[in-house]
Design goal:
The structure holds two protein chains of two kinds.
Chain A lengths: L1 H28 L5 H27 L6 H6 L6 H10 L1 H20 L2 H4 L3 H24 L24 H16 L1 H13 L5 H4 L1 H25 L10 H26 L3 H24 L14 H21 L14 H28 L7 E4 L1 H21 L12 H20 L5 H23 L1 H5 L1 H23 L4 E7 L4 E4 L2 E11 L4 E13 L2 E6 L2 E5 L6 E4 L1 E3 L4 E10 L5 E9 L2 H15 L10
Antiparallel strand pairs in A: 2-11, 3-4, 4-5, 5-6, 5-7, 7-8, 9-10, 10-11
Helix pairs in contact in A: 1-2, 1-7, 2-4, 2-5, 2-7, 4-5, 4-8, 5-7, 5-8, 7-9, 8-11, 9-13, 11-12, 11-21, 12-13, 12-15, 13-14, 15-16, 16-18, 16-20, 17-18, 18-20, 20-21
Chain B lengths: L1 H31 E6 H6 L8 E7 L11 E7 L7 E7 L11 E9 L4 E9 L6 H10 L1
Parallel strand pairs in B: 1-2, 4-6
Antiparallel strand pairs in B: 2-3, 2-5, 3-4, 5-6
């Protein structure tokens, strides 16, 4: 079975390569007749990838430990659901999952009316790029990251999934990210193809759903990752600017910048070359993200560890960058139109894209700083979370304020709607004053919060004042996403700087006071279950102003499959205002329990905003040919 | 005319943006940068370097002290040269995966008088399933 699965992967690689070569030959000779064999070849390759994925999934579900990959990611105690998530829980499997989504997205795109609207030459070039990208991943899988290595003799039990990954958030977080990454393959390859072939139809419009869907998946994956970190890791935060977190954020910045410049191309026909570069760069950064998490180039707490795919990934990225530059330089001439004034909607969209790209660059440089600094320093120098917060937060807040202003400007120049513009500025100033008056005196937090309130006001006013906006489905999507961004900004503005936390060692009946709440340790129980060899559940009574509010049950667990290692289970009292958060740190010899307790203001708005962004993003979907 | 004007505005905006951004990056780099050191490098480093540093190493098998329940004190040993160690004193929540023998990353400053590294943050590297592989890689390299 191992050999079969590997052979099928190898066949997929050869089919992709031959089809890509055939597509290149046909495109060169400008013969549309070559198209059908190429399409069939890509379906064949997709079939191979699907078949090998099914074999791996079946091996995981039947716990066939003769597969090294299964042995490393599954064990007897693991529930059925988590045997499936093992598919993307490890290094080789997640790479196969990436590849699976790439090939399936290629097939789905080729069956859509939008693909059929393209010219034959564009289609051929599309397959050249797409199949090369697909073959690159198959090459990594067959040469350096083979998920089908056989173990002899077959072990009786596996090593199991890391308990930190046994969380509902972890079922969806990785596949969402990979769906986002792979989702950019179709628009990026279509962009390069359309540019090189001089396609008269707009690839931006034709692949619009793909770039939106990829963005929604990527956003959802990042937000869910933050939620997982907050609920499962038990350190009380959701974003630590860890290299792995940054790795997913960098392509998000590029993808988001593209969404904004794409609007300009779709509406005004400008920025065509920029958009090709941006979408290709987004895909490139998705590969870079994979590189960061797998190469071991940056020390981080949860990378996959050093691996042999690092060098091939670098070569692949360089090749893609060179290809993109060549396409943009030597592609067929297009009509170019110049941009309007900066004080227009178009101008602000461009400025927004610049901001996002600059933020992406800073996060990239910051993440790579330990490597870069070695160029002039014998000791490697890295950057902590303070660096990122200092540089990115002011600009992210400014972006939110720009959005509050932007819809009141005309497309070409000047203010379109004075009422709304003035109202939003007044709301911004008033809310900043109100926050200051309420005792929030950190300038950046007040600025961000007031910008967020102004942005929310903008969305509300737009829908109140204009019936055309209310009837426009696209407007619901666009402004809905920004409403989500504003809520998220509000959550970050308060939950970051105004969080209070403490560590306390409490005996029975002792109380600690934090942020206006009284936490009293009542008692604890110890038990064991099928899954845990030991579990300690502490009870913590919470009072506010003398009134009982809730009882929290933070736990400390030892999993049977991970003896000698303790895992904390967080307990929260959820709230849209102050969320209470407690973990058990340990128990002392005289029976006292040490807790970490924090009060996180408005933290749930981060998740609400993130959810709104993703759900409203789906409203941007177009059916049929989408106005082409 | 309008076009020229718009170019000037764009240019001014870009300069303003770069200025603000540059200032933030510059101040961030000068104040928030941290030396990344292995234990043996930290032992050889000058005192100034250790005022703000991130150390990479392994938790020694013995001498782990729970620090009264709200932290941990332990010997951080070099990954390659097990003979070299620094005493680390950490207050705060100890990660679940912390135990003797695991790889940890601590950030903080050296207290030169007590010869103890006062850590503000402590993170453990995930118990790597790929440890054998990564060790193989290191041997090859």
């Amino acid at each position: 079975m191992h050999l079969t699965a590997y052979a099928v992967l190898l066949a997929g690689l050869l089919l992709s390569l031959f089809s890509a070569a055939w597509a290149a030959r046909s495109a060169w000779q400008d013969s549309g007749e070559g198209l059908r064999p190429v399409e069939l070849g890509s379906y064949g390759a997709a079939g191979c990838v699907i078949a090998s994925s099914v074999i791996l999934l079946a091996a995981l579900m039947t716990r066939d430990y003769s597969f090294q990959y299964v042995y490393e990611n599954v064990d007897e105690t693991l529930s059925f659901m988590y045997t499936i998530t093992g598919f993307w829980g490890g290094r080789a499997g997640s790479l196969l999952f990436w590849e699976l989504i790439i090939t399936v997205s290629g097939v789905l795109f080729s069956l859509s009316p939008r693909y059929r609207a393209l010219g034959d030459r564009t289609k051929l070039y599309f397959w050249v790029f797409f199949l090369m990208f697909q073959a690159f991943f198959l090459l990594l899988l067959t040469c350096w990251s083979n998920p089908f290595i056989k173990l002899t003799p077959t072990p009786l039990d596996g090593r199991g999934l890391n308990p930190l990954l046994r969380n509902p958030g972890m079922i969806f977080h990785p596949p969402l990210l990979f769906l986002g990454f792979a989702g950019y393959t179709v628009p990026a390859c279509a962009a390069l193809a359309a540019y090189i072939a001089g396609e008269p139809k707009s690839w931006v419009k034709l692949t619009r759903n793909w770039s939106i869907l990829a963005w929604v998946f990527l956003t959802a994956g990042i937000v869910l990752g933050g939620w997982w970190s907050y609920m499962e890791l038990g350190w009380g935060g959701y974003w630590a600017w860890d290299p792995v977190e940054n790795a997913s954020l960098i392509p998000w910045f590029a993808g988001t910048a593209f969404l904004h410049t794409a609007v300009i191309e779709a509406r005004r026909g400008a920025l065509q070359r920029t958009n090709v570069v941006l979408i290709s760069m987004t895909l490139l950064l998705c590969v870079f993200s994979t590189y960061l998490t797998r190469s071991g180039v940056i020390e981080s707490l949860h990378t996959f560890g050093k691996s042999a795919v690092a060098l091939p990934l670098v070569i692949g990225m360089v090749a893609q960058a060179v290809l993109t530059v060549m396409v943009v330089l030597f592609g067929e001439k297009h009509v170019t139109r110049s941009l309007s004034d900066l004080n227009s909607r178009q101008g602000l969209l461009v400025a927004c894209a610049w901001f996002l790209l600059a933020l992406g660059l800073v996060v990239t440089l910051g993440t790579m700083w330990p490597v870069i600094s070695q160029l002039w320093s014998t000791q490697s120098v890295g950057l902590g979370p303070d660096f990122y917060n200092r540089v990115t937060l002011p600009f992210l807040s400014l972006l939110v304020l720009m959005f509050a202003v932007c819809p009141w400007l005309g497309w070409k120049s000047g203010i379109r709607d004075m009422r709304g513009f003035v109202a939003v500025i007044v709301i911004f100033v008033l809310s900043a004053g109100a926050f200051w008056f309420m005792g929030y005196h950190k300038p950046l937090a007040v600025f961000s919060a007031a910008s967020a309130v102004a942005a929310i006001a903008t969305v509300v006013l737009l829908f109140l004042l204009s019936s055309a906006t209310r009837k426009n489905f696209t407007a619901w999507g666009q402004y809905g996403i920004h409403l989500g961004v504003a809520m998220l900004a509000l959550g970050i503005a308060f939950s970051g700087p105004y969080k209070v936390e403490t560590e306390a060692v409490l005996g029975k009946g002792e109380t600690v006071r934090l942020g206006g709440f009284d936490f009293t340790y009542i008692d604890h129980v110890q038990d064991e279950t099928k899954e845990f060899s030991a579990r300690l559940t502490a009870r913590l009574a919470v009072k506010k102003d003398g009134e009982p509010l809730a009882v929290m049950h933070p736990e400390k667990r030892i999993y049977r499959s991970y003896p000698g290692q303790q895992f904390a289970e967080v307990s929260v009292v959820p709230s849209l205002g102050d969320e209470l958060y407690a973990t058990v740190l340990g128990i002392t010899e005289d029976g006292k329990v040490s807790f970490q307790i924090s009060v996180n203001p408005l933290v749930n708005w981060v998740w609400i905003g993130g959810t709104v962004m993703c759900v409203m993003g789906l409203a941007l979907f177009r059916r049929g040919r989408g106005g082409v | 005319m309008a076009k020229k004007n718009s170019k000037a505005v764009y240019l001014a905006a870009v300069l303003l943006f770069l200025g603000g951004f540059g200032y933030l990056i510059y101040s961030g780099l000068s104040e928030d940068s941290v030396y990344f050191l292995n234990v043996n490098e930290a032992l050889a480093a000058e005192e100034g370097v250790l005022q703000q540093a991130r150390l990479f190493g392994k938790v020694a098998m013995d001498n782990v002290d729970p620090n009264g329940g709200v932290g941990v004190a332990f010997d951080l040993v070099d990954k390659m040269k097990p003979g070299q160690a620094i005493r680390v004193d950490y207050k705060g929540s100890v990660p679940d995966t912390f135990k003797p023998g695991v790889e940890v990353i601590v950030e903080g400053r050296m207290d030169p008088s007590a010869k103890v590294f006062k850590a503000k943050t402590l993170v453990t590297k995930c118990p790597s399933k790929y440890k054998e592989q990564s060790e193989e890689m290191e041997e090859k390299a």
